[in-house]
Amino acid sequence: MNSQEVLRIIDSICRDKSIDKEMIYADLEAAMVSAARKAYGQVEDVSVKIDRITGQISALMEGRPIAMAELGRIAAQTFKQVMIQRIREAERGSIFDEYSDKVGTVVTGTVARFEAGALVVNLGRAEGFLPRSEQIPGETHHVGDRVRAMVLDVEEKPNQVRIVLTRSHPDYIRRLFELEVPEVGERIIEIRALAREAGYRTKVAVSSIDSKVDAVGACVGVRGSRVRNIVDELGDEKIDIVRWNESSQILIANALKPAEVQEIALCFELNRATVVVAEDQLSLAIGKRGQNVRLAARLTGWDIDILTPVEYNKGLDDMVKALRSIEGVDDMLLEKFMTMGLISVGDIEEIGPEPLIKELEVSEELARHIVAESAEAAKRLAAEAQAAKEAAAAAAAEEAARAALEAETAAAEGEAVAAEGECVETDADAGEAMAGETAVASETPTDLVSPATEAEKSDG
Fold this sequence. Notes:
Elements: H1 3-17, H2 21-40, E1 46-50, E2 57-61, E3 64-66, H3 73-100, E4 106-115, E5 118-122, E6 127-130, E7 146-156, E8 161-166, H4 170-180, H5 182-185, E9 189-197, E10 201-208, H6 215-220, H7 225-233, E11 238-243, H8 248-255, E12 263-267, E13 272-276, H9 282-286, H10 291-300, E14 303-307, H11 309-324, H12 331-339, H13 345-351, H14 353-360, H15 364-442, H16 451-459
Parallel strand pairs: 6-8, 10-11, 13-14
Antiparallel strand pairs: 1-2, 2-3, 4-5, 4-7, 5-6, 7-8, 9-10, 12-13
């Protein structure tokens, strides 16, 4: 191998493996030193230098030049093993550095194989690992399928670089919006909050720094074209895009859409929002298996309770009845409780006396008395609710038993009627049989009559 071939091979390795050229030269020199020591014994003074311009190799052992081509087969094998190991280590380092900078970005690859439910994705120079926990529930892949995912983490293992991918992380939605919506990528539109249940539904709150740009409209696109691309990428996962607002009440109302909200009471001490919706909007506000209100709570950062007007008013009435008899509690103080977002005796029991003393400036004795009375009222109301629930369950069980008995009675009567019908049918069949026998007898042929009978008729 001449000098030009050495230079060409080094350039090819650096280009294909994305390894620094100087590192390759250093690894080659170290591998040649190991080969020389293998051939001549463990001598100390061995040096090899490769000219970076001409590719000329010069080797010295204890000051005397040696020819690398004459080291023999064993030395050549040693050089090969050392060089392969050094190149692999350099390549792993290069891959680690490259993908460490790509953490949080979207990459595209093809499914190479499956490992215990996880996907191994070919990313080109490296393989990504998509665990089952980071896949979208219900999504299926096949070998050779194109896969888009976000780099979640990069770990350097002894023999490999482990690139962990994700398709279920909430930030994956954020990156897709940055790719599909130019205004989001340019930071004209900002994704202020995001809540996701992978494979089912995602809520995104957006705002615009430019008053001329409609944040929601830009993210949805013309006839939903932009958000449709993201939905298709996620396997038809529903995406709700809501408008961000600094007011928690407005933000909560937006987050609970498509349900219409009547009233919102905020309790900052409990970080709880009590939302009142009409009876016909209750199931829509809660969502399937509580999904809508759960995602809205994550999006806004508030614990959200959904109540109907009847439930809301009952909580207020119970609180007023429990506290009005306390000396020092008047209508103005009760109004302050409602202003604080306290709409039931359970809320007062939960916050304790300190907020009442600090916010409402009531005496410590009165505050503790109010909390104690609220706790007693909460226990009494809970017992009444439990009793009513048990009574309703007993009534339902009794009604079910009565319905079952009526069904059994109806079934027995039906069987009796059916049996009676069978008896009538049997009698009818017997009558028909007897009539048939009579008809047969009357139709007996005359040639079967005895001769004596004919003679008797003649005599007569």
